[in-house]
Design goal:
Strand order of the largest sheet: 1-2-3-4-5-6-7-8
Bound molecules: phosphoenolpyruvate, magnesium ion
Order of helices and strands: EHEHEHHEHEHHEHHEHEHHH
Length: 312
């Protein structure tokens, strides 16, 4: 448990001095949705839709997609849910997309890149999401994975609005996107940082390679500096900046992320209570001091140590 944090979380996503931080869950199934609600999540920060289709040989019809998404959204009537469009490719090949073999799939046609020459797949998915949003009454936003540039973000936001969906965002998980956070936030309503892929691409270290796990440590100061850049852009433009990678599930790191300007933390349901309590356990200023301390560290171990000391 976190020193200084209350043993129980009261379910309100905020620092001790009332700065709002959404404490939301990552889900991919009806079972996850139920677990997230039971855990006290305020909503969903990442619904990984590709998990519904890993076994599909053909593109599921819109009606099938609509009812699959609707069943997962049902427990979230009136609550915020961020639905991510298909993140196929690399570690998640989808049979129905016939993606072919690439020598370097993590750097290949994956995520939103699949949609550029198959816009119909995206538009049908967005139609199904819009239907499921209406069926469930959930407060749905949609975001794209693996966006690299502001023009890709603008293109995606255009498709989302054409589908009649209200809010469009993108994931920040390619270093170029983090470096263009301001330009991206000018054309979308929010961003969410995928620290798993962002670390992989920043350190040129395959996230599945156990031997490179130390480079993929979310406490790496270089990764935290990029998060801070995105946080600053969000604050300047007055738009939400989330984190939905594993980093958000670490109660100590969660406070550092808040200090870097992150306004929403999305995580495995099991981490919700601990992170909610940790964020509530101190002020926004304390989070900022912890962030400042971590940014100046030479390595992940020192960043952790400095953040812990700063939070007393
Ligand atoms: C991430 O990359 O951090 C992320 C949340 O997306 P996924 O783990 O599904 O690639
Ligand atoms: Mg990712």
């Amino acid at each position: 448990a976190q020193r200084g944090a209350p043993a129980e979380w009261n379910g309100v996503g905020a620092t001790a001095d009332g700065h709002a931080v959404n404490i939301v869950a990552n889900i991919g199934s009806v079972a996850d949705a139920r677990t997230a609600v039971e855990a006290g999540a305020q909503g969903v920060g990442l619904f990984r839709t590709e998990f519904c289709y890993l076994a599909a040989d053909d593109e599921p019809p819109v009606a099938t997609q609509r009812s699959a998404y609707g069943a997962i959204l049902a427990p979230f009537t009136g609550r915020p849910v961020v639905v991510r469009t298909l993140d196929a490719g690399a570690d998640k090949p989808l049979a129905f997309l016939n993606m072919g073999v690439e020598p370097n799939p993590a750097l290949g046609v994956r995520g939103v890149r699949v949609s550029f020459d198959r816009q119909g797949v995206l538009d049908r998915q967005l139609e199904a999401i819009a239907g499921a949003a209406a069926d469930s009454g959930a407060d749905v936003s949609v975001m794209a994975p693996m966006v690299s540039t502001a023009s890709e973000a603008a293109w995606f936001a255009g498709r989302v609005r054409a589908a009649g969906l209200g809010r469009a965002g993108v994931m920040i998980e390619v270093p170029a996107a983090a470096l263009s956070a301001r330009e991206i936030l000018e054309v979308v309503d929010f961003v969410s940082i995928g620290t798993n892929d962002l670390a992989q691409y920043v350190f040129a270290a395959d996230r599945m390679a156990g031997a490179l796990a130390a480079l993929n440590d979310p406490w790496q100061p270089a990764l935290l500096r990029l998060v801070g850049m995105v946080g600053e852009a969000g604050a300047e433009l007055g738009k939400p900046v989330g984190v939905c990678g594993e980093a958000a599930a670490d109660p100590l790191l969660a406070r550092v992320l808040v200090g870097l300007g992150v306004t929403s933390l999305s995580m495995v349901p099991a981490a919700v209570t601990g992170v909610g309590a940790a964020v509530a356990g101190g002020s926004l200023d304390a989070c900022r001091r912890a962030a400042e301390a971590a940014l100046g560290a030479a390595d992940p171990a020192e960043a952790r140590q400095r953040a812990r000391e700063a939070l007393g």
